[in-house]
Amino acid sequence: MDALWVKKGWIEIDVNGQVVFTPGRWDTESSADAIRHLLEKVLPKLDPKDLTVKIIQENGLSRPLQKFFGGRSYRAVTAAFPEIQIKPWEMKSTAKNFFKSKQNRVEAIKWLADVKLEKDPRKLTLEDFRANRLAGLLRSYYSDSPYYAIREAYPELNINFSDMHRTPRKIHDYPQILLDEIRCAVESTGKPGREIRQHELKISKPAKSHFGPRLFDILHAAGVVTEEDKEYIEGRGIPQANEELRRRRLAEAARS
């Protein structure tokens, strides 16, 4: 007995050409068979990953799609092609709110670096995300910054912005990224902000040029020092300034 899908439903035809299964009587198995038939026979040039809800609906399969696959093309494709390992984000359209879950975001980023590309996460670029249908994820949750994405997915790496392989274009349009970089760099020294020396602060050129070049200005922008620290930081290494600061503090201590 052969199975045949037509736009009016799924039917079975015996060897004599007689219909023995009424159109419209769907179950999970026949619905999956219909999706597979649609892709293999009706639309053979269409990659299963490019199948959308609209295409399914246009080909008369709205009912089984809603009833057995929750209205999602991803579920329909995985049911029809269990031998193909497809991730939700590889589909042409990802379910709405899918990436609101941190777990889903992290899984997608780790899949991209560890499985799909097999590369050091720090070498991921904007182009890598775009080429693998993760541009929307990067844009919506990480301001188009692979740096932000990698920090969330791999907290154990304690990545600084300067560790990244490439600096995003127009990085100055995203000052928050630079501020986070500075804070991470400060944390990595293990010192209070006011005790850090210029050579100890390992940050990128964009961060230095955007907030610097003076060390105090950079640290102050990141919120790791206050105005009260300015004289101390800028006076270090200058004997006269250090001595003047010492005398002033002694006088203040005596008055209190």
Question: How would you explain this protein's 3D organization?
Answer:
The protein has 256 residues and is mostly helical. The chain has a two-stranded antiparallel ribbon. Helix 1 packs across helix 4 and helix 5 crosses helix 8. The termini are far apart. The mean pLDDT is 81.
Q: What portion of residues belong to β-strands?
A: under 5%
Shape: rod-shaped
Helix and strand string, N-terminal first?
EEHHHHHHHHHHHHH
The overall average pLDDT, rounded, is: 81
Strand order of the largest sheet: 1-2
Measured as a percent range, the helix fraction is 40-55%
Structural class: mainly alpha
Number of domains: 3
Terminal CA distance reads: 99 Å
Main sheet?
A: 2 strands, antiparallel
Q: Number of DSSP strands? A: 2
Any idea what the radius of gyration is?
30 Å
User: Low-confidence runs (pLDDT<50, min 5 residues)?
Assistant: none
Number of helices: 13
